[in-house]
């Protein structure tokens, strides 16, 4: 997934190409997104900038569902992905991202966490 460095490969006002004055730096690294799907629990641990760790979900089985009326959190099994407004392709493939609507044992809920970066699925009952 080679990507040009931002603002290094702009064109001249005449339309001519300009050479980048330097290459990519380590902190400008780009990765493929981890698309979380429904299945047996599987997580990936990534080392990120500053020596920190980011946990990503490759596949999930359960979600932490908050019922705002009762003020309780329940760990519920995800039955299916109802819809994902982030991308039509994600909707078709059943990828879980922030904002996706999922059907759980506790009822229909909207995902409020980022499973591909947080490593957990948190949702609010709707």
From TrEMBL:
Record keywords: Ribonucleoprotein, Ribosomal protein
Family matches, as Pfam families: Ribosomal_S8e
Entries under CDD domains matching the protein: Ribosomal_S8e
Assembly with partners or alone: Part of the 30S ribosomal subunit.
Biased composition (Basic residues): 10-22
Family the UniProt entry places it in: Belongs to the eukaryotic ribosomal protein eS8 family.
Descriptive protein name: Small ribosomal subunit protein eS8
HAMAP family named in the record: Ribosomal_eS8
GO biological process terms, semicolon-separated: translation
InterPro entries referenced in this protein's UniProt entry, alphabetically: Ribosomal_eS8, Ribosomal_protein_eS8_arc, Ribosomal_Se8/biogenesis_NSA2
Any single GO CC term annotated in Swiss-Prot or TrEMBL for this entry: ribonucleoprotein complex
GO molecular function: structural constituent of ribosome
Keyword Ribonucleoprotein included in the entry's annotation: yes
Residues covered by region (Disordered): 1-22
PANTHER family per UniProt: 40S RIBOSOMAL PROTEIN S8
Record keyword Ribonucleoprotein present: yes
